[in-house]
Design goal:
Elements: H1 2-16, H2 19-34, H3 43-85, H4 100-117, H5 119-131, H6 135-145
Helix pairs in contact: 1-3, 4-5
Length: 152
């Protein structure tokens, strides 16, 4: 059942993102607006668009979230593989689980290191990632430490 929904969500999100679908939705809204005078802008006329768009939006939230979550997991897995097979810091695996403040701090340290501050900044970045207080990070460190680590 889960696999069926995942395939369904992928197809619907791919389909919904096409320009022709946007044009069809726009045409439907224009037709609805043009029919307003014929229905004397009644409550029923308004209810048609309100109900239709609400139902579609409600269902699409779940479909698109499912597709986005799977895409994000796939991207993270690919990035983790690149980190593990390169000379990058293995400690960067799983940093997506850090809280907002930890990510901002880490982002600032990485930006400084990218500007050429040298090995000292790289060490500080490694220490910041190590020191991040996260239960998932602790689990992640145990998993990563079981693999051969290639670090700078």
């Amino acid at each position: 059942m889960h696999h069926l929904f995942a395939r369904f969500a992928s197809k619907i999100s791919e389909w919904a993102g096409k320009p022709v679908i946007f044009i069809l939705a726009l045409i439907a809204v224009v037709i609805w607006a043009a029919l307003g005078p014929f229905f004397d802008y009644s409550e029923t006329w308004q209810l048609v668009i309100n109900t239709g768009t609400t139902i579609i939006t409600f269902l699409m939230v779940f479909v698109l979230q499912n597709a986005q979550t799977r895409d994000t997991r796939a991207i993270q897995a690919k990035l983790n593989e690149i980190i593990l097979t390169s000379h990058a810091e293995n400690r960067f695996i799983g940093i997506e689980n850090l809280d907002e403040e930890e990510l901002k701090s880490l982002d600032q340290l990485v930006a400084k290191a990218a500007k050429g501050r040298g090995a000292t900044e790289s060490c500080r970045i490694s220490e910041a990632v190590k020191a991040a207080p996260s239960k998932k990070a602790a689990t992640r460190k145990r998993r990563v430490s079981a693999k051969p680590a290639r670090q700078r």
